[in-house]
Amino acid sequence: MTSRFAAALAVILSGSVAGQQPAPVAVASPEVRPAVEEIELSGSFTARRSAQLSPRLSGLVETIGVDAGDSVATGDVIVRLDDRLAELELAQAEAAVEQSRAAFDESVRLRDEAERLVEDRFFPDTEVRARRSAVQVAEAALDVARAERDTMAERVARHRIVAPFDGIIARRLTEAGEWVETGTPVVELVAVDDLWLDVQAPQRLWPRLGQKTGARVIVDALDGQTFTGEVAARVPVSDPSARTFLLRLVLPEIDSDITPGMSARTVISLQTDADALLVPRDALIRYPDGTITLYTVDESVSPPVARQREVRVGRVDGNRAVIESGLSPNEVVIVRGNEVLAEGQAVRVTGGGS
Hints:
Blueprint: H1 2-19, E1 23-28, E2 31-47, E3 50-53, E4 59-64, E5 71-72, E6 77-81, H2 84-119, H3 125-157, E7 160-162, E8 167-172, E9 179-180, E10 187-190, E11 195-202, E12 214-219, E13 225-239, E14 244-250, E15 263-280, E16 285-286, E17 292-298, E18 305-310, E19 312-317, E20 320-325, E21 333-336, E22 347-352
Parallel strand pairs: 1-22
Antiparallel strand pairs: 1-21, 2-11, 2-15, 3-10, 4-6, 4-9, 5-8, 6-7, 8-10, 11-14, 12-13, 12-15, 13-14, 15-20, 16-17, 17-18, 19-20
Helix pairs in contact: 2-3
């Protein structure tokens, strides 16, 4: 009984469609050309330079002149350790240098005096050689004293932690009066004006992405403002669980409101080598079960009628979709008025679509 009802319903519907006035539709012809695949990926801005600064020797924090959010320039002193003992050692080393220099000068004077007297046979040759050796010994002692002074000066300098680059203090990790060991982080410094965008790209894109690949970067936090991005690097270490690799992009012109950690979407356009069959996306009708169809115009009858075709759709090229199967290049597709059409319904072409 059910099958007889379905057959009767089909007859009624076909008769109803046949009795309708031709539906006005707009049509478009498929294009055959290399397609541009647009791939959207999500990522985050990261600072090219970020460092946790730590002392090069242990000591007591005497002063810390910055807090989170402060801007610093290269060479600015961020933290000072108590360097009183190191200063005293440096003063002692400088005094030792002066002492060694005086001894060296005296040995040079005695050598020169001996060389003048030996010409008149008033001084033995052995004494002259001894005084020449004394000069060499005094010179070596002076070099040692200078090296010790320079070591003490470097030790004093290492009581100061300076900014290695321009940036913003992200975190302050110590306070005055604390004892810090060598390598203990005291502040975190981030260069906020030198950023790149890190995204995870699927591994199938590895051979297709190069230095000249262009991208549009959309920053949602800035009301969807769009920037031009360039591929800076492909990091050839993939994530085996996600089958992705790291893609780094730079923005030649970046907004000062973009900060590290801010998210962004990037749309990468990739040109394909092979020709593809493209139709306007408006021609596609999608169903909840995943089926995709479109309507073509059958002009072999009068008036022309709509023919529904199930198609397989590949990637999307802007406002056009790549048809992988189910359509031939010489068929005209309906792009407007197709939402309410039925198979075999008469149509009237009123114009073309894009």
